[in-house]
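Case study 2.
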Amino acid sequence: MRWPRRAGIGALVPVDTIEIQRVVDIEDDNWWYRERRGIIARELRRIGVPGQAVDVGAAGGGNTRVLMEHGWQAVAIDSAPAAVDLCLAQGIVAYLGDARFLPLPSATYDLALALNVLEHVDDDRAAAGEIARVLRPGGTALVAVPCDMELWSAHDVALGRVRRYARADLAGVLEGAGLRVERLWNCNVLLRPLVRWRRHRARYCEDMADVPPVVNELLGLVGAVERRLPVRSWPGVTLFARAYRPG
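Prediction:
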């Protein structure tokens, strides 16, 4: 399979400022982001006592707010000045930073989020190494990436991605950074056939657009049904990993 053209060794592919603002405008109501916040909330309940957290690639801070709402002392990091400004405007502690060189002390954080970050970084192993570095021994990393190069389309190019991941690829990147993977699972399994058809029939389709309310609720219902089915090992659209830094 032919891989997409990359921006150069170690390069971080920027996400457009307009795209960041678009996410901020829709994420409170959009089914995709509601499902994402639900996953974060369930993982936080599993961890238990809140501590120090960092949200790498925080964009407008939607996921950082979830951390704060659950009692975590959270810091947002993003490589886009516009994203940092949006976080600061919401009262979120935020810093401008590259995922490969986090402006944070080592062994400090109990939790690191990196949701849809690694696929934008040419040197994703360096970014994973930074996540491991800033975690305390026993700290948890929650990572999400787009799943499977078979779904590669103009949509990925438009979002500045340089790859999609197979399960073994993501596990290898995290374990190569010194993290131990506890669990890998797929999301949006039931919607994969629709996503594949939609993305390959057009040069670019905007998944993040403001969908009609009825469609938005229907897609959210599909996600709720999926959570009750034993399909997390099946190919999906998004791949999640939970890993930890050994003590």
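The two ends are 39 Å apart (CA to CA).
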